Amino acid sequence: MRRVRITASGTVQGVFFRAAASDEARRLGLTGWVRNTDDDQVEAEAQGDEQAVDRFVEFCRAGPGNAQVDHLTIDDLDVVADEADFGAR
If pLDDT is split at 50, 70 and 90, which confidence band does 71 have? Predict the structure, then answer.
């Protein structure tokens, strides 16, 4: 089990990044959340099987459709007990 915080910068707001990331995380069976930040970035925390988390990181590195991810930061976090789903904030 692994949990990461991902911060994506570039053209990541207004291009359905949050919605696509939520769909991908759910497809991978992850829990956590994704949100836009006030400084035009997208931040997410994702938790689950290590391989699924790695696939989610790669999804975020590329971004959906019209997104242009210029920089991606990944930080490992402590696992959160009893988290049940993945949502957009």
Answer: very high
Q: Which conformational region is residue 9 in: left (phi greater than 0), alpha (psi within -120 to 50 degrees), or beta?
A: beta
DSSP, residue by residue, 16-70: SHHHHHHHHHHHTT-EEEEEE-TTS-EEEEEEE-HHHHHHHHHHHHH-STT-EEE
Question: What's the CA gap between 26 and 33, in Å, rounded?
Answer: 10
Percent of the chain with pLDDT over 90: 98
What number of other Cβ atoms are within 10 A of residue 5's Cβ? 14
Structural domain boundaries enclosing 30: 2-78
CA 56 to chain centre: 7
| pTM for the predicted model, two decimal places | 0.95
Please check whether residue 83 lies inside any domain of the structure. no
Active-site residue set: 18, 36
